Amino acid sequence: MIAIPVPAAQHRPDISTLSDADLVPLAKMGDEPAIRVIVQRHNRRLFRTARAVIRNDAEAEDVVQAAYIKAFTSLAAFRGDAQLSTWLTRIVLNEAMGRVRVARNTTGLEEIDMQRASWGGEVLQFPSSLSATDPETELSRSQARHLLEHAVDELPDDFRAVFVLREVEDMSTEEAASCLGIKPGTVKTRLHRARKMMRQSIEKQLSGAFAALFPFGGARCAFIADRVIAALRNGTSETD
Q: Which residues form the RNA polymerase sigma-70 region domain (predicted)?
């Protein structure tokens, strides 16, 4: 296990501004603040990556934690040939896919399908930089996010991983291919098909919803009727 020394009581610069390349040597020496910065810097990407494979929030968190422990206990093996984020993403993918393989080997197919059906009800919280101006706006954003998350969850495993890495995490085609161990051309093909499946899923969820657009009933409808009746009455009295 990596040994984390007790930090000395002395002034040190803010290491949160350091690059990953500068943080790695410190982390290799067990520097706790450096390790903490690395974890906080890459948490969101790694969680999203694990969630793309596992489709369960709690288990995705376990995957990320296990991956970090593996990464920091074997950090000496990191030579800097790839970006730290790419290296960490590969570890997370291996950990997540390993758990999926174990589940498939030890659980009946019917039970797995039932688990996945229940997992589909959970949503992945995509942080938004926009602040809600009112509860109605926040509700609309939440509903839109849930719609997209459901569509992502419905993608087949291979396509979901590509979609999350490319569209959600904005990885390049080459970086996503490196993380997944596939060819860039395969990434492009799967992304194209994933986008098509996403559109179909969203259209299916929205089917029949257009009839509910621009509702005009209840008090609003009654108010217009009252105004029409009042206008007619005024016009009749003026004629008389």
A: 38-103
- Is residue 128 predicted with pLDDT exceeding 50? no
pTM to 2 decimal places? 0.63
- When the pLDDT of each residue in the chain is averaged and rounded to a whole number, the result is 79
Would 16-122 and 134-208 be classified into the same CATH topology?
no
The architecture in CATH of the region 134-208 reads Orthogonal Bundle (1.10)
32-38 own/partner pairs: CB under 8 Å, 24+ apart:
32/4, 32/5, 32/7, 33/7, 35/4, 35/72, 38/84
Pick from 84, 39, 69, 49: which is nearest to 157 by CA? Answer: 49
pLDDT tens digits, 167-178: 988 899 999 999
Q: How far is CA 171 from CA 64, 86, 116, 129, 196, in A?
A: 19, 10, 27, 19, 19
4-7: long-range contacts at Cβ-Cβ below 8 A with a sequence spacing of 24 or more? 4/30, 4/31, 4/32, 4/35, 5/30, 5/31, 5/32, 7/31, 7/32, 7/33
Domain formed by 16-122, architecture: Orthogonal Bundle (1.10)
Domain map (residue ranges) of the chain: 16-122, 134-208
CA separation, residue 118 to residues 8, 55, 97, 102 (Å): 48, 10, 19, 19
pLDDT of residue 123: 38
